[in-house]
Each structure stands twice: as structure tokens, then as C-alpha cells.
Amino acid sequence: VEYTEEDPKPKIEEDCKPHCVKEWAAYKACAERIKSDTTGQAHCSGQYFDFWHCVDHCVSGRGASSHHAAPEQLAALTQAAPKIMAALK
């Protein structure tokens, strides 16, 4: 898929983040709790996933209404898996 104009996804994601403050706060609280973990077993992937799920839910709604996105563009807008996997590495 080749886009002729700038990808709106990053801007839409930034606009959606304020709608997910509860999920972001849960992630930050978890990150703070596990700072002292010496086992390397503690993680906050669940909270991180919840945050991006919230953002994606918001993005998908905005993509359909404000940008008149095609189905393949909506699919591209709502895929947070690469970000999640990169953060977990």
C-alpha cells in the first residue's frame, strides 16, 4: 500500500492518548512497582497492551469518521502489535 499524503496514524495516536490516561497510569504504576525486581521476571506487558488497545480503539473510531479511511487504511491504523513487541524486547 502506497500513500500519496502523509500517514495520519501518528497524529491520530497522539490525539487519542489523552483518552487513555487510566490505562497509561496503570502502566506507569506497574513500571514503578517492578523497578526493584531483581529476578527479571516482572513485566508490565499486560498494562502496556491495555494502553495500546485503548489507543487503537480510539484511532479506529477517528480514522473511520474524520479521515474517511479505506478498510485497508483502518487496518494499518489499528495495528499496535509491532510497537508492543518492540517494547517487550
How many domain modules? 1
The stretches of 5 or more residues where confidence is low (pLDDT under 50) are none
Q: pLDDT average, as an integer? A: 81
What count of helical segments does DSSP give?
5
Structural class: mainly alpha
Instruction: Bin the strand percentage.
Output: under 5%
Keywords: Disulfide bond, Electron transport, Membrane, Mitochondrion, Mitochondrion inner membrane, Respiratory chain, Transport
GO cellular component, one term: mitochondrial inner membrane
Pfam family, one: UCR_hinge
InterPro entries: Cyt_b-c1_6, Ubol_cytC_Rdtase_hinge_dom, Ubol_cytC_Rdtase_hinge_dom_sf
Question: What does the secondary structure layout of this molecule look like, with pairings?
Answer:
Blueprint: H1 9-16, H2 21-33, H3 45-66, H4 71-77, H5 81-88
